[in-house]
Design brief:
Elements: H1 2-24, E1 25-41, E2 54-65, E3 69-83, H2 90-95, E4 98-113, E5 126-138, E6 142-145, E7 148-151, H3 152-155, E8 174-189, E9 192-203, E10 224-225, E11 228-229, H4 232-236, E12 264-279
Antiparallel strand pairs: 1-2, 1-12, 2-3, 3-4, 4-5, 5-8, 6-7, 8-9, 9-12, 10-11
Length: about 280
């Protein structure tokens, strides 16, 4: 009887000590860096194929509020690009458009840990998590022709800025996105974590790829020499001539993209983060 009572008191004392230690070490947050891949989805990738992953990298600071909730400030860079040559659709391959763009993004997000995360204690060094927020990013699509780089927004490939289409204004170079992601993190020691995160971004622009509306071949007068159009607009607004024996396959008003659906992109990144912890006296 006495022995059982002593064991009970001992277990209770250990549990109480453990609870006080958990109160003592506070996980304040993290800062870290990541690198991985990005991929685009939109008018040049209507089959949501993953054939052209490109570089992505980022940095962040997370402020932790308790063991489960945190708020993150982040900065990210991503390269996006795609081409109709990868499409299984014969019509899209004939369209023959392509683009690349650099994404520079800053954002704020809320993070939720599914498990208690406190890297000072071995039983709390792993958790899956979800994240959701809002960001602003810059982009400026470009393509190459004869090894020369052309920024497509300046050209107005769908008639933007042409006096013949006064209602079509050139799109901006900044947009908003809603990032939604899932990830896992694991603490190697009280100071250092590793993590992996997959984040999909819904955007409010349909011009990441410079493709949205219809063809407007008459938007700008074309200069010709020996019957060959050589202005950037004439060369780049409709590149089907490269797949149709030198003849433009599409006419004015023909569908060039789907203006009813915005573009999006996803990143998969792996990184390291450094814990910020503090000590406080436990409650009496």
């Amino acid at each position: 009887m006495k022995k059982g009572l002593l064991i009970g008191i001992f277990v209770l004392a250990i549990s109480n000590l453990r609870a006080q230690m958990l109160q003592s070490f506070v996980h304040q947050g993290e800062f870290g860096f990541s690198v991985g891949a990005a991929h685009y989805f939109g008018d040049l990738n209507t089959f949501t194929s993953i054939k052209r992953p490109k570089l992505a990298a980022g940095a962040f600071f997370r402020k932790q509020f308790g063991d489960y909730l945190g708020v993150r400030l982040s900065a990210n860079y991503a390269q996006l690009g795609y081409s109709d040559v990868y499409s299984p659709s014969p019509l899209e391959r004939r369209r023959n458009l392509s683009f690349n763009t650099d994404i520079w993004e800053i954002g704020i997000a809320g993070d939720f840990n599914f498990f208690r995360f406190n890297p000072e204690f071995p039983e709390y060094i792993f958790t899956p998590y979800v994240t959701m927020g809002v960001s602003i990013f810059s982009y400026d699509p470009y393509t190459y022709f004869n090894n020369q780089k052309y920024f497509l927004r300046d050209i107005g490939t769908e008639g933007q800025g042409s006096p013949l289409y006064p209602n079509l204004q050139k799109y901006g170079t900044t947009a908003i996105s809603i990032p939604f992601g899932v990830g896992v993190k694991y603490s190697l020691n009280p100071k250092l974590n590793v993590f992996a995160e997959l984040t999909y971004r819904f955007t409010n622009t349909d011009f990441l790829d410079d493709v949205s509306g219809v063809y407007a071949p008459n938007a700008y007068p074309s200069l010709e020499a020996d019957g060959v159009t050589f202005t950037p607009f004439g060369l780049l607004q409709d590149r089907s001539y490269e797949t149709s024996n030198g003849v433009n396959y599409f006419t004015a008003g023909a569908q060039r993209g789907n203006s009813k659906k915005a573009d999006s992109f996803v990143t998969l990144q792996f990184g390291l983060s450094f814990n910020l912890s503090s000590y406080r006296c436990p409650d009496r």
